[in-house]
Amino acid sequence: MDKELLQLSIDKLVYGGYGLSFYGGKTYFVRYAAPKELIKAEILKEKKDYNEATVREIVLPSESRREPPCRYYGFCGGCQLQHIEYESQLRAKEEILVESLRRIGKIKDINLLDTIPSPNEFNYRVRVQFKVGGKKLGFFGWDNTEVVDISECPILHPRLNEMIPKLKEMIKEVNDIREIHLLYSPFRDEYLCKIVTTTSLNKNDLLRLKDNYLGNKVVGVGNYSRMRHGLNRRSSVGRDHTYIKVGEYTFRVSNDSFLQANYHLWNNMINTVVDNISFKKALDLHCGIGFFTLPLAKRGHFIEGSDVNAKSISDADYNKTLNGIDNVSFTRASAYNQLKSRLGEIIDLVILDPPRSGLDNGEIELLSSLKPESIIYISCNPSTLARDLGALIRGGYRLISTRLIDLFPQSYHIESINILELTK
Ligand SMILES: C[S@@+](CC[C@H](N)C(=O)[O-])C[C@H]1O[C@@H](n2cnc3c(N)ncnc32)[C@H](O)[C@@H]1O
User: Given 59, 75, 298, 385, which is the most exposed site by the fewest CB atoms within 10 A?
Assistant: First the structure.
């Protein structure tokens, strides 16, 4: 029997990529909806406070609605906004960012600078994490349960798409593979690969997989287990790292280090962060490979980068020498421990670029005691950003500007660069 459909009017998009609607005293979060349209939806999940639904028929389409270019769209959960024109994706993200700052952060004065769009709305990712389920390789559907098998993905760099047939052959042989991560360097035209399995692969296994399936453009392969808090490396063969070039800087990046995924925006992102900055002493508390730390070093007397990831710190140290920059040092430390060890010192600038979870209360308290004159907060999650900025503002900071930089076209993720200054 056909499922009953509910006619809903979509007000706007909200974080997560859902269309928002109100009907019969209940809030509806609707998948694949566009702002200002009338649709018929099927209810997928009924909760106490809200229902989740998906579009089944479009009654009056939004002006921003378009045919999604990807043939897997609607099954694959990797993208949520492909059915919306790119300009409108940007406007919707701006609205969500400002609304989060107002509602969660209770921030009144928001100076939203012009958004930096991605120069290419497709083929922008140089990093990918494929999920594997049986003989299927692709991404989870919206509910994160089943792997949707794909043979190409339009947001990936074409060289990543070229690897898919080889990976599909490989998973036929090793049926224990759960995930395959690839990082492609457009600078070196080479890849690094992580294979996540439940049982161990030794070096000989990895060499065989590299020779038989991956090919010699894959310069390093590691075998990993998935732990609660991330991946744990068991073995590896080949080179552990590759190199990328961003403007005048060359960075070594290891298989286990973080790298910003949208390569079209690397240069612009760095320039936006370092623009108009000067300082005597700065801390970059989530420095990764030194992506912002090294360009920032040219704008001040001394900057200290720190990160919990030992591999990133070893890359950052190497990159310091590679780029001939000496007014910088790198330490492996959590943001909390680094802030604690610098209390009492005069630090005039702090850079924050935390993971999606944002900062914790201890880090906010230490920042409020350290009182740097300026803070640059780079965020990939408007909800945790709004929470943290709210707390920093209560601790004596003013939000000078917020700028969205669209690292993630077609997906709901929102990256922003926020500048704060001390008022007290
Ligand atoms: C979004 S990445 C940014 C890295 C770098 N700024 C870049 O743009 O390449 C976040 C970084 O925070 C690091 N990290 C995660 N938790 C941390 C913590 N509690 N303290 C310090 N660094 C942390 C991760 O290892 C990762 O390198």
Answer: 59
